[in-house]
Amino acid sequence: VDAVEELEYGYCTQFVVQGDALDPEVVRETMKLMASSTVIVGDESVVRVHVHAEDPGRVLSAAVSVGALSCVSIQNMDEQRAVFSQEMRDKNISEPAAAAVVAVAGGDGLKDLFISLGAADVIQGGDTMNSSVRDLLQAVERDPSDNVIILPNNNNIIPAAVQAATNSTKIVKALSTRSIPQGVAAILSFNTGKSFDANVSDMEASIASVQSGAVTKAVRTATIDGVTVEENQFIGMLENKLISAGQDLTGLVDAVLREAGASSESLVTLYWGSPVSEEDANRVAQDLERDDLKGIEIELVRGSQPHYHFIISVE
Q1: What is the percent of the chain with per-residue pLDDT over 70, rounded to a whole number?
Q2: CA separation for the pair 226, 143 (Å, rounded)
Q3: Entry pTM
Q4: Which one, of 132, 212, 133, 206, lies nearest residue 179 by Cα?
Q5: Both ends of the chain: CA-CA distance in Å?
Q6: Structure-derived torsion over alpha carbons of residues 276, 282, 283, 286, reported in degrees to the nearest 10
Q7: Torsion over CA of 49, 55, 56 and 59, rounded to 10 degrees?
Q8: Considering the chain, what is the average pLDDT of its residues?
Q9: Are the beta carbons of 152 and 177 closer than 8 angstroms?
Q10: For the residues of 53-91, what is the DSSP string, one character each?
Q11: Predicted local confidence at residue 93, as pLDDT
């Protein structure tokens, strides 16, 4: 059983591709053929790749045909969790980084994602489980870096993050990331080779590049924003505004994407949560990709977040 579970996680594989005329979309399509949980950003000269793959060697072989590779990192997901736990115990003897990121997220998948993208610590939190000032402050103080950036990733947690930053003896900046997609966009802009101020500036600028949506179930009957919702209906939201309600999960994700103006030019990521199975998540993504009206392509990432069937990112 353990071997099967380990295989399902695969290997977290990250690297940077450099070249003269790179096409991030071509890299994305190549990676999607052999990996999952693909997060790919960049431009014509540099593309940063994060994927989960059962065979990382195949991924790297494909990537090297596109451009020159650097910053290659491959780690078994289960081992990654163990290493992270050990690093937390050893923080007091670690070499301090120029800047560190503390993120808030609910769900093992989202935690793994933020760690793999460079977060030094991930605090459990989100809707219905707001992180406290104490939790955030402890995370900041136990990191050896004197400069820390907090990603609250939830509107309700921003005040606590700001207070933790104010109360810390370190130089701390709490960014106003109001959602997981904003937090991912921010940390993708984090560069350990840059100064603290430069990272703050780049990460703040990236927040505006993404729209955040979600699909969940209504807990009661109500009329909100002119939309009537029955208890246990699926509801779709964009930037915390209710968009639509119904019984069709795919239809609700579709409604959010249409409201966001998603098209073939958009980068759409669906973080699927614990209320939905992987099979159903794949079915929703495939149904959406077959919609000829939009021609969008979906990146599906395991979030494991509670409450939300999907967290939706549109860039």
Answers
A1: 89
A2: 46
A3: 0.73
A4: 212
A5: 38
A6: 140
A7: -50
A8: 85
A9: yes
A10: ES-HHHHHHHHHTTSEEEEEEEEEHHHHHHHHHHHHHTG
A11: 46
